Globin
Amino acid sequence: MEGVNEIRRGTLQEQTFYEQVGGEETFRRLVHRFYQGVAEDPILRPMYPEEDLGPAEERMTLFMIQYWGGPTTYSEQRGHPRLRMRHAPFKVDRAAHDAWLKHMRVAVEELGLSEEHEEQLWRYLTYAAASMVNTAD
Ligand code: HEM
């Protein structure tokens, strides 16, 4: 008979990053805090076409959830992310990149994740931000 402390073969499921860091709530907190920064930012705020930042916040939240292994609601609503293409209408220069990452940094730190999770998240965000730059000046 199996011991009570044994894990039955095949029942140990690997958790996604999304689950490991606390699921939907964590990503909602991250992106909400980020958009509080955007709302006050003299470079970023004017770039957003809509007066209400709420819908943009929701799109970014659903994207992050999907990227990190949660539900795929983003693609159900928006299709393939194609982020570079979706950013093409906006002038993403060095200054916009730096401002974007500055607000993300604050938001990431406030999550209080483990060092490993924080590093993994931050590595992705810095890489993704660099790849979104589409204007040299
Ligand atoms: C580097 C500086 C960046 C700037 C200045 C910027 C700016 C913007 C702007 C103005 C929009 C349109 C707002 C809207 O109506 O949704 C947008 C959309 C979006 N951005 Fe960025 N962004 C940057 C980087 C990134 C990065 C690194 C990611 C992902 C890791 C990202 C993810 C998204 C997503 C998911 C959307 C919504 C796309 C859609 O479904 O339409 N952005 N961004």
